[in-house]
Amino acid sequence: MRIVLSNIGTFGDINPLIAIALELKRRGHQPVMAVPAVYGPKIVPLGLEFHPIRPDLDPHNTLLAEMVYDVRKGTERGLREFLFPALRETYADLTAAVTTPARADLMLLGELNYAGPIVAEMTGIPWASYVLAPLSFFSAYDPPVLPMYPRLARADKAVPGMGRVIRRLARFVSRRWPQPVYDLRRELGLERGPNPLFDAKHSPGLVLALFSRVLGQEQPDWPPNTRITGFCFYDADAGNAALPEHLEKFLLAGPPPLVFTLGSAAVLAAGKFYEFGAKAAERLGLRAVLLIGSDDRNRPRHKLPSTICVAEYAPYSALFSRASIIIHQGGVGTTAQCLRAGKPMLIMPYSHDQPDNARRMRRLKVARILQRTYFTPLRVVRKLRLLLENPLYARRAQQVALRVRTEDGVATACNALEELAKRSKS
Question: What span, in angstroms and rounded, lies between the C-alpha atoms of 230 and 412?
Fold first, then answer.
């Protein structure tokens, strides 16, 4: 089969697609990656066919990152000021990817590609969708944390029907956001269709929930034909999964360190995260690794002791298992790697799915949460001491890791795609 895999987003959104594409290729299929051009240098060396789609991402655009990760308006502005203005370009690029040089047999679409369902409808090509976190389902039975209204989440167990209230509130607040999608559908002669933010993004044929059941379980109001696969892991750099040489030497020279990381996107809006993280590690007398990204402004300004190692990037799969505690932003990709490594976490969530993921980790008793506004060296020290001194967190992390490691998200997802293709042909 020729299968086009497409989404727009961060490495956390794209890496699971790469994992699935590599397995599809191993099975003899022809996967085609249709993602922003910035990912081309990471994908082409893997021997995967690549078609860039707009809008492209600037990996150094700190202003965009700060805008998108604003807890109040980040989701709205990301959609209305970044994704939707380029909707017609996305539609044109994806249409070309699924029809040239040959027609695709199947599409796998991420929820941030709002042109994708329209392309499927216009071309008649069967499609599956995928989500990375339970937040995407906005279930009334398992209500999410809405970043702009976090206090509502505290009442979801105490107040009957609060889950339905949260779901209705989310729909009401965002009711005007998808108008550009409706406009494009009208231009193409299509009916208005379901709400793009909540309903139309889910394929009627197959919805892949690319996360573990330790993160979320099936709910009665999830879309039909949803299948939880387990996490789909991939974090190599154009196929290279080795640690930087200086980081490898640091890890060999002493006990497991703290690891401070903000993923691939929040790292562009780090603020004082690394500065305060380094000071907290120094106060505790612990070794630490700071994954600061390519922005030199993230490098702490004070002189660092030899017990702290700074690196731009490191594959989490090679690093986290050698850490003591991981301090991160709560992105689902980072969270998944922590769970697989069996390590406790201190989570400083930004926006989007991160506050919801953080709460789920706290419920699992593998993490503590510290909000961005309270992220100071003294408070970080207090939270880390709780994690270090209470053996429950390390024990629970190891128990959860055993469950996560039994899942094969990539194989399960590929099996489901092959089954959908067979059903579509019959």
Answer: 8
Cis peptide before 101 (omega within 30 of 0): yes
- Please give the C-alpha separations between residue 225 and each of 105, 141, 222, 237, in angstroms, as whole numbers: 19, 18, 9, 33
Please state, in angstroms and rounded to a whole number, the distance separating the CA atoms of residues 359 and 147: 12
* 93 touches 76 (CB < 8 A): no
pLDDT band per the 50, 70, 90 thresholds, residue 160: low
246-296 per-position pLDDT tens digit: 999 999 999 999 999 999 888 888 999 999 999 999 999 999 999 999 888
User: Per DSSP, which regions of 57-210 are E strands?
Assistant: 106-110, 127-131, 207-209
Say if residues 73 and 80 touch (Cβ distance below 8 Å).
Answer: no
**Contacts for 174-180: CB closer than 8 Å, 24+ residues apart:** 174/76, 177/76, 177/79, 177/80, 177/84, 178/79, 178/84, 178/114, 180/84, 180/85, 180/87
What number of other Cβ atoms are within 10 A of residue 402's Cβ?
9
Across the chain, mean pLDDT equals 93
Confidence at 153, pLDDT banded by 50, 70, 90: low
Q: How far apart, in whole angstroms, are the C-alpha atoms of residue 124 and residue 143?
A: 34
Distance of CA 180 to the CA centre of its chain: 25
Of the candidates 143, 132, 138, the residue with the CA atom closest to the CA atom of residue 228:
132
Q: Read off the pLDDT band of 100 (50, 70, 90).
A: very high
Q: If you average pLDDT over residues 112-123, what whole number do you get?
A: 97
Whose tokens are 């509130």? That residue is 169
- The pair of structure tokens assigned to 95 is 């249409």
Residue 316: Cβ within 10 Å count: 25
CA atoms of 361 and 352, how far apart (whole Å) = 16
Alpha-carbon distance 172 to 43, whole Å?
Answer: 39
Do residues 384 and 282 make contact, with C-beta atoms less than 8 angstroms apart?
no
Asked whether 334 and 263 are in contact (CB, 8 A), the reply is yes
